[in-house]
Write a structure and sequence with these properties.
The strands form four sheets. The protein has a four-stranded mixed sheet, with helices on both faces. A three-stranded parallel sheet has the order 1-2-3, with helices on one face. A two-stranded antiparallel sheet has the order 6-7. Helix 2 packs across helix 3, helix 4 packs across helix 8 and helix 7 runs antiparallel to helix 8. It has 16 helices and eleven strands. With 418 residues, the protein is α/β, with parallel strands linked by helices. The radius of gyration is 22 Å and the shape is globular. Strand 1, helix 3 and strand 2 form a beta-alpha-beta unit.
């Protein structure tokens, strides 16, 4: 049996940067903010499964676009995933459950034919402020596609088409592509955009399915939408063989607004084709971000976890920022407490972390996480750091004294054992 320590000794210092790694194949079928590096996740999971041959399932309680679960499944593990974002859940579900390629090819021909017909009757889609976010002709084009997708017989095929539509919706919306928040483009840019909605959708549906696995109704894919802490509480204790995740490193509102990024596509997708979730997540453009760890819906409170490191950090930032940091750390460590409960004794947890800035002071989240998990009885089997050569997220994420603050450019990987 090869140990993790022996494997790490063979790697060069900059090996984990994966500087030349790019999203490819299945990971490119729909874009998403701040995605993990597939090559790195595969390597990390492989290291653990080579040391522990008994690993059968893998949990990512913050699965995002599904990179970790896809790579874990490719190594023969049963995937279990949680995320607060219904759009991320849909993307991950499609990547894991796959499609019947013969059925998709037949459906593609039918869809392309129907979309180009002039005598199709369809309802023009509507939601609050839709004309703010989409040009009238774009609304009509997307509505026609939506109508035709909904006529597809098989739910998993409809789900595939919705995922193929996500990038089209983002491209033809009136939002700027330079940020994940919803900000209107300049009017001249909106007016100059050529309507190639049909062409782009046809291109997506004709190529993306080739990267997906073969669909089988017997395939075991366990994905849920909701607050990770609640979902972990409902998970059987000591039932998980491997946890591999990259949790948020701050509240979504001031780090990466995954919810705002996802909201416009969600308003186009038929809800019956999404995994069941609380309707409140779609109340407004910020609902998902508000419901995420440390969001405004968190109950104001004092620090639950006694940490000199955290107290010293709070002393270094303005009092007005304390509540936001405390709420996030409370929610974050609560999630880790529940992850500890579901992981089997003697099994591994792989965590990729980043240390954000608040008031231009670095929040030592990695060290706080280590302290907390050591107190819970974990041992640290390995600790890695990597430079982030390219990351699908803005380099400037907030402002202090009217000056932009740079986002992190280093990540840390902890390999722990319960």
């Amino acid at each position: 049996m090869v140990s993790i320590t022996e494997i790490l000794k063979e790697k060069s210092i900059d090996y984990w940067d994966f500087a030349d790694s790019k999203l490819f194949g299945i990971h490119k079928i729909s874009s998403y903010p701040a995605t993990m590096v597939p090559d790195m996740q595969k390597e990390l999971i492989k290291m653990v499964t080579e040391e522990d041959k008994s690993v059968k399932n893998i949990l990512d309680p913050f699965h995002g676009s599904g990179v970790t679960l896809v790579e874990g499944t490719g190594l023969g593990l049963d995937p279990i995933g949680f995320d607060i974002n219904p759009l991320a859940n849909l993307m991950t579900l499609v990547k894991l459950q796959g499609v019947n390629k013969k059925i998709v090819e037949s459906s593609n021909r039918r869809i392309m034919r129907k979309v180009l017909e002039d005598d199709i009757n369809f309802v023009v889609h509507d939601f609050y402020n839709i004309e703010k976010w989409f040009r009238t002709d774009i609304i009509e084009s997307l509505s026609k596609i939506k109508h035709i997708i909904q006529q597809e017989k098989y739910k998993y095929i409809r789900q595939y088409y919705w995922v193929c539509l996500i990038n089209v919706i983002k491209k033809y919306s009136n939002t700027r592509s330079s940020t994940f928040k919803l900000h209107i483009k300049k009017e001249e840019d909106i007016n100059q955009l050529k309507n190639d909605v049909f062409k782009d959708f046809f291109q997506n549906i004709s190529t993306s399915y080739k990267y997906l696995p073969d669909y089988s109704k017997h395939k075991k894919v366990l994905l849920s939408v909701g607050d990770t802490r609640e979902l972990l509480s409902k998970t059987e204790q000591n039932s998980i063989d491997l946890i591999c995740t990259s949790p948020p490193y701050g509240d979504n509102g001031t780090t990466v607004t995954y919810g705002q990024y996802s909201m416009l596509p969600l308003y186009w997708i038929n809800k019956k084709d999404l995994t069941k979730f609380d309707d409140s997540l779609l109340e407004n453009y910020s609902s998902i971000d508000s419901a995420s760890l440390g969001g405004p819906k968190s109950i104001p409170s004092k620090v639950h976890y006694t940490s000199d490191r955290l107290i010293n950090y709070l002393d270094s930032i303005s009092l007005s920022k304390h509540r936001k940091v405390i709420n996030f750390v409370n929610d974050y460590l609560d999630a880790f407490d529940k992850m500890h409960n579901v992981l089997k004794p003697g099994k591994f947890m792989i965590v990729t972390l980043g240390n954000r800035r608040v008031d231009n002071e670095i929040l030592p989240l990695t060290e706080i996480t280590k302290d907390f998990l050591l107190e819970k009885g974990f041992s640290i089997e390995a600790e890695l750091s990597r430079n982030i050569p390219v990351k699908r997220m803005p380099r400037k994420v907030s402002r202090v004294n009217n000056k932009a603050v740079s986002s992190m450019n280093t990540e840390y990987v902890l390999i722990l054992k319960k």
